[in-house]
């Protein structure tokens, strides 16, 4: 099972004076990339109050498309002022199958962390399998 929930505030750089023309170009490129991902789940880029945001969420049997981690890494490269979080639960990841992981996007870098509020998944979220 692969479950994810996240958001990104898209900013061209970390200074609060984005060049509007360049930012719109970045957003147009991101919109095209998102359209090509063809996700059956939540994957949305929209402007709110003059700023672009990406929202995403999904739940599939296996980690496959869309490549949401790749999207976070791409945004880090093309819009280094962007920031956001992506919570992932992947029970097929042998080193983290009992954890919710958080990817943090900040200042052009994506880092991974264990979500302490939701981990370990058993017993925090679910009872142990007694089969």
UniProtKB/TrEMBL annotation:
A Pfam family: Imm7
Highest taxon in the source lineage: Bacteria
InterPro entries named in the record: Imm7
Full protein name: Immunity protein 7
């Amino acid at each position: 099972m692969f479950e994810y929930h996240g958001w990104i505030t898209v900013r061209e750089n970390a200074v609060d004076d984005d060049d509007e023309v360049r930012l719109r170009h970045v957003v147009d490129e991101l919109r095209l990339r998102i359209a090509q991902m063809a996700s059956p789940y939540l994957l949305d880029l929209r402007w709110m109050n003059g700023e672009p945001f990406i929202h995403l969420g999904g739940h599939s049997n296996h980690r496959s498309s869309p490549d949401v981690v790749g999207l976070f890494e791409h945004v880090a490269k093309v819009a280094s002022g962007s920031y956001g979080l992506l919570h992932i639960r992947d029970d097929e990841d042998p080193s983290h199958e009992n954890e919710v992981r958080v990817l943090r996007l900040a200042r052009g870098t994506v880092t991974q962390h264990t979500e302490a509020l939701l981990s370990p998944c058993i017993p925090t979220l679910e009872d142990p399998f007694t089969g």
